[in-house]
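chain below, 385 aa
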Amino acid sequence: MPDAILDDISHRRYNPLRDSWILVSPHRTKRPWQGAQEAASKTTLPQYDPSCYLCPGNKRAQGDVNPNYESTFVFVNDYSAVKEEQADYESVDRDSSLSTMLLRAEGVKGKCYVLTFSPSHNLTLADLSPSQILPIVNTWTKIYTSHLSPKSPLAQVAQPTTLAPHSHSESPATPNAQYRYMQIFENKGSAMGCSNPHPHGQVWVTTGTPEEPGLELTQLQKYRREQGGANMLEDYATLEATKKERVVFENGSFLALCPWWATWPFEVMVLAKEHKRALVDLNDKEKQGLAEAIAEVTRRYDNLFETQFPYSMGIHQAPLEGTKEEIEASHLHLHFYPPLLRSATVRKFLVGYELMAEPQRDITPEQAAARLRDCWGELYRKKLE
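prediction:
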């Protein structure tokens, strides 16, 4: 367990993945838990919605008609945040002027995909079994493989893929450039800005490295250099598996835990226990282990406050194209960032001190992990049927 005094005093915890700190105020949780209590929410959505642009057989915004898919379905986003075809941009200021130093910009090209998790409109990852989540993991892997640089060491272990998602023009999704990074993510719930409840996630590929995975990659490489080739997150997984107090779920391949440095009240990280650089490093058994870990985390989330628990989830792994040092320092992991604090309607907001100084939390990661561990078992909604 952490030093006993840390349960009673405000303190800061270090995040080695971002080289940042968070303020923890555990004394604020000494009072009994008196969060608001709402009735357990039921699923009111139909299995099929004729007005949903993600349901099988329905028409999307640009006029394409979805196939009658039975598992996952991938297509190029009709309203992509980045585009493959656009004018190049290069700053005209090349001297050492203030404009050059302070008013910087660079063009970004890329491609955005939508991935439906199930043909059923009224299901979420929490409703799906590991065997139903496995096709999602396999599809993620195929999309990553189809964009992987042939020069990457990962290309030597990646299995050939025939995945060819289509855009509104029905053109194959083969990229017309070598992209640098792929961000796979899911926003669940309207609280996270999700505009359609049909279970789905997104995949964005870009020419540059986004800031968050870029910060992590810098720290992972630094640790590897300083520790003689060791991998930070493999070492961290080993440490947490030994200590247990922040572990929510564990199987043979993956560990789900509330990180020592977590910002969000019930933040969870899913870690490969052994060094896996990216999804393509996983064998069939390990992919099943990842599907099981995702099922366990999402079901426990919903059981915690007996609601459709909102979150943003993202996968961090090796860049599609990078140096050998970048690839080997990378470690496959998933972040779950949920906003709920005390109940189905009471949220955590990053405001005031947290915006102007640094993030702060009351409930400790150890307390959060204990509560999530207690939420194992059948999904609460099945008991309401």
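Confidence is low (pLDDT under 50) at residues 165-172. The chain has one domain: 40-86+105-164+174-383.
thats it, cya
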